[in-house]
Amino acid sequence: MNARLGPDSGDALVYWIGRDGRILDISEPVCAFLGYPRDQLVTLSIWDINRAFPAERWLDHWASLQEARQFRFQGAHWRRDGSRCEVEVVAHWVDLGGPPHICAVVTPLTEGRKDYVTLRDSEARLALALDVSGQAPWELDLITGQAMLGQAHAALLGRGPTERLADRETWLGWVHPADQNQIVRLFEQAVSGQIKELKVDFRMRHAAGHWVWLRTIARVVQWDEMGRPSRMLGTHLDITASKRAEEALQLTQASIDRASIAIAWHDREGRIIYINEKGCRSLGYPRDELIGCRVDKFDPEFPIEDHDAAWERLKRKGLHVFESRHVTKDGRSFPVEITATHIATDEKEFSLSFVRDISERKAAEQSLRSSEAFLDSIIKQNPMPLIIFDGKGDVVRHNQAAIELFRATGAPERLEDYNLFEDDRVRGGGHLEELPKVLSEGRTIRFQNRFELRQANGNPVLELDTTLFPIRNANGDITHFALTHVDITELKAAEARLRYHLDSEQALADISALMIKPGWDDLDARLNWMLERIGELTQADRTFLFAITADGLTATNTHEWCAPGITPQILDLQDIRTADHSPFFESLRDGQAVTARADDPDYPLRFKPRLPEPGLHSLICIPVVGGNRLLGFLGLEAIKRQRAWSQIDVRFLRLVAEIVAHTQQHLQSYRAQGEHTWFLESLDRISRILTRSRRDANIMTDLTREIRDIFQADRAYLLHPCDPDAETVEVTVEAARTEYSGTLPETRVIEPNATLRAVFRQALASKGPVLTGFEPDSEDFRQYGTRSRMAIALRPEAHQPWQLGLHQCDAPRDWTGNEQRLFQTIAERIGDALSGHLLLRQLTESEGRYRAVFDNTLDAVIIHDAEGHIMAVNKSMLDIFGLDAQDIATCTVADLCGPGPYQESRLRLHLWNGVMTGDMARFEMVCRRPKDGQVFPVEVILRAIPFGDRQAILANVRDITERTRAEEALRQSEERFAKAFRANPAAMLISTIEEGRIIDVNDRWQSLFGGTRQELIGRTTTEVGVWQRSDVRAEAIEQFRRDGQVRDVPMVFFTRAGVPLDILWSAETITVGDEKVFLSLVNDLTEQKRAEHALRESEARLSAAIESIPFDFFLLDINGQYVLQNTASRRRWGDVVGRDAATATVHQGQDASWGAKLDAVRGGEIVDAELEVNVDGEELFFRNVLAPVKDGDGVRGIVELTMDITARKRTESELESYRSHLEELVSERTAALQQAMSQLMQAEKLAALGNLVAGLAHELNTPLGNARMVASTLAEHINDLAGAIERGALSRAQLMAFLETGLESVDLLERNTVRAADLISHVKEVAIDQTSVRRRVFNLLHTTEEVLSTLSPTLKRTEHRIEIDIPPNLEMDSYPGPLEQIITNLVSNSLTHGFAGIQSGLIRIEAHALDDEFIRFSHADDGVGIPPDVRTRVFDPFFTTRLGQGGSGLGLYIVYSLVTGALGGQITVTSGEGQTGTLFTLTLPRRAPERQSSQARTAQDVF
């Protein structure tokens, strides 16, 4: 340990400290250092000698040290004499099996010790800097030969801790054999002092066995007292990637001549400079024949006349791709695609062309164009919106219908800017999960979704039917997918209306069919079912039916249906006086539909005595009118919600009310007819007895028995006299049921009691019957067992009054009015028959009464002879046919016949002859009213009767207009049912119950299960494959028999192809003819099952994602209550679901700003805060993030993330305490860093100057070389001319040739020297601008072009190109030097970093004026982009991703400094990972800000 303490380790002091902070033991030097004896020191605590340490923080210090195991810090100790001494403390946590304790090694901080601590911290920071930069430090002891590798070598070479200390032979053995000699030689030169620094690239073996290229830089840093080197320090940097890139570049350069496409160079005149082997083979020429020839030799389309303009266009654009045709040496022509790039080098300009034979592609393109034209026509002419997307969800093609639809949906007008994957309206629906099936499996998916319209006046919704299908290329690969939308909003609304209409029509048909069903015993059940059906269809909470008495004074709730949870009110709504609610009932009498709400003042619901349910009540009442009378009303009530009743509701309810009215009229007519028939038949039964040809003593007995049977009474009797004063009376005749006979004495003479005498008095005082009831304790009940009695007095002429009576013994009985009238009529007839001499008169009176019945019957009665002459009619006949009594004399039956077969007299006479012979005829026909010609249907019954002294025909004629209308309505209802059955969107089938034999199917069934209607009808469902197993169907039928119906039962049916379908099956019986059959309704659940499966998978993924979060995750509702948490949070805080966040987790009632945070998140903000929380007495720190969960523009919930940052906070606190001691060291390091920055920036400028000089030399070489060649040639011609002159052999032709050659040479010399002068002038101007901050007005386009011309040598060695888009008249009053430096650095940055690994890239430089004061200058490339973690640091000095590979990290820092400094502007960078490119945007003032002369600096002074 002492070896690690430093030079003053002999002063080390050792303390042993317990958990309570008390000193357990100390080393001897401690006593001398502090001036305390040992026995006194072991009684003190640590804060007694370190008075700056608070005792209350000891436990925190103990816990922190227990976790960290070791602390190093500086502090102060106080001696016994009160003096203060600064110390360095190294505290260790010690646990040897007993009680844990702290061992603290304390070193007094002398000046030497302080210097040592400062140096140690400096070395630690240097090691950190090296580690961050990717360099691995190493140290070599030159005396022992031992090398110590840094920790970074573990990642660099895979060397573990045991291999980091190696001797010379070991680490030299790791070096590649080919590099060992070079390493040894340079090492010896560095050690001997021949070279100051060892810098070499070499290979070293990784622990895994592969070779790693390293760049090492090392120097001797320490010598012994004899001047011999003793210590060497150095770093290793991994340059493997750079070496591999260099090898790849060499391979690229070597492979050009072997390229698989033709590559050629030609100059500005179009002469071939170079062509590779592929180009020669494609043209059929040897290379030497092509070199030097013009391009038009094999390219007849080469623009010879317009070549200069074409060359300038190529030069301006940098790259041009076009098509042409080449001609081979043997004359064959073939199409080619040429990619021409302008390249300038050595003062020469060239065009580098890549030529590709596109014969096959042209043929394919021709086929493709035909296909594309066909496809384009389909797309454009398609009335449905059609959009084609690429694999990223971007739009590549669309038609006009798609544009119109997307404008309607609120999407961008430019579909090119739309991305399907980014549309949250598609993503919210969950349909994007299906898209991989389209792209990977080639499936076509179809779904319906609700698309929210984003409009200023609200967000209505479009209903869309969407289909996605894949698009494959020629290889069968899926490259795109297409989407079609069908707007089904109106269809959905129409479907809803149609569904309601069909349901209402079906309900009307069902109600109508039920109401016209024969029999009236179950009418109440029918009406209750009707109300339930209406309530469920209209979604009302209560439906009811009121009946109004014939006098219109009272209304009663007779039937009611209530939805679950609704209180019935039928008992509270009985016998309501209509006069108390006259406005309401007057509106109903006027035929109006009354709608009302509980809070409407004009239609208060006062006829409802109470409204127990809270809230608004919406009511609608429809009158039930029969004839001209209000029979009642049908009502619907909405209690749970406010309801607006539509015209469809009103129409439906009116039709139901008509059915109810017809039913009630039919019932009343039926009852009236029944009662009337019973009345007539009863009278007829009595009359038959009274008019028997043979009268005997049993006639009264027969009459009594007949009366008891007619009235179904328990006893009937005749007694006399009906005298209240008589002492006794005689029961002349008694007819009783067996169980009630024998109650009278044998003499049949009884003494009337008081009750009977009272009845006598009432009967004598009244013409009608007297009704009496008896209780079980009455005398009559005890004596005769009578509960009810109806009696009437008979008054035969010349006789005392008699009494005719009926007893009801089994139960009390209410005698109806019709029974009383019949009883009275019978009594009158029996009274006439009491005496023999009045019997004939009785018969006459009976016939008169029968005539009254004849006249008063509701049916028309006609008596006519066999020729059709009318003999007698009743009043109903006159009313029905619109005749007067005097019209009958001139009217015949033929006059009453309407259109139809009975207008033929032959048919009538044949029918009447049959009736006259004893037949009875019953038929329907059409009658006609003679006066107005109106026709109407009737039912006719014909029978023969004696009339006077001859036979006649009795015709009962009943008007059946209403019944015919009801039957027609039923027929129309059946027709509507058939149409609804066919068009129903659900699959429907009608089959027999036992066999399942198919009677009919609708269209949806055919499309869903396959097969045509003709193929299916007559076969069983098992035969067509719906049921795969007959036992499954048998079980389903058995369940149907038990339950009476099937409602929404999940089943699996099979199509004819055997494909299983998940469906909901409903079935019930209906009557077709006289047979009950099966009506099955099937709803396909296949898409629903798929959606449910996708939903379950989505929920599982969400749950797994939440559980995988390593910190506390919560989901809160909008009110701030927890609704969901993950396992990590539950372990820390327990189960908090349902609790208020303000009182739980990190808030715990201690977060005073919770309310403000909650309001901010509700407003859509993200709140990120750090909280200090006391948990079980311990202060903990948490980072708490609250984020809104948005749904459209609203906030549905809140996500909360909580991370424990206690350890980080404590570390920051400790670092803060150390920071105060680093100021001096920071100042020193800052000065050194500034000096290094200056040197590196100077090196950066020198490197740029080197590149500039190299490029300049390269550019000047061409014109100067040309000038030298022309000069030498001209000298040769002059020498030849001088020799000819000396020989006297100079000819005119030779002189003219010399002059012509001389002129050409002078022209060439002038052009090349001018070009060299222009180049030097440009470079000079750029150099002057870049080495000064001289302000002037300059043209931005010209300045940019001049800078790029100096970079052309660098660009010529690559396939990269630069495009410029700057207006020619855009000028700036600024500093062109810094701007040119900026352009140079940005281009260099793109070439070095942006196009790393890219063969051909594009740089685009653009500028335009924002307004009169500012311009926007942009530099963009399509390179690899900048990762997000790097993008935030690109403007930092010395930050580079190519450290050790020539990058200094100052290029973009210089750009940033010049933009924001000299030019007074701003710069931003936009980029992403992948080949998405990088965009630098500069916003610069057109007039740079003024600079004070005292502050004027050169570009070099900026740094």
From TrEMBL:
The keyword Transmembrane does not apply. Residues 1255-1488 form the Histidine kinase domain. It is an enzyme of class 2 (transferase). Pfam families: GAF, HATPase_c, PAS_3, PAS_4, PAS_9. The keyword Coiled coil applies. GO terms for molecular function: phosphorelay sensor kinase activity. Signal peptide: none annotated. Its EC number is 2.7.13.3. SMART domains: GAF, HATPase_c, PAC, PAS. Residues 198-251, 320-370, 447-500, 921-972, 1165-1217 form the PAC domain. Residues 1208-1235 form a coiled coil. Keywords: Coiled coil, Kinase, Phosphoprotein, Transferase. InterPro entries: GAF, GAF-like_dom_sf, HATPase_C_sf, HATPase_dom, His_kinase_dom, HisK_dim/P_dom, HisK_dim/P_sf, PAC. PROSITE patterns: HIS_KIN, PAC, PAS. SUPFAM superfamilies: ATPase domain of HSP90 chaperone/DNA topoisomerase II/histidine kinase, GAF domain-like, Homodimeric domain of signal transducing histidine kinase, PYP-like sensor domain (PAS domain). This is histidine kinase.
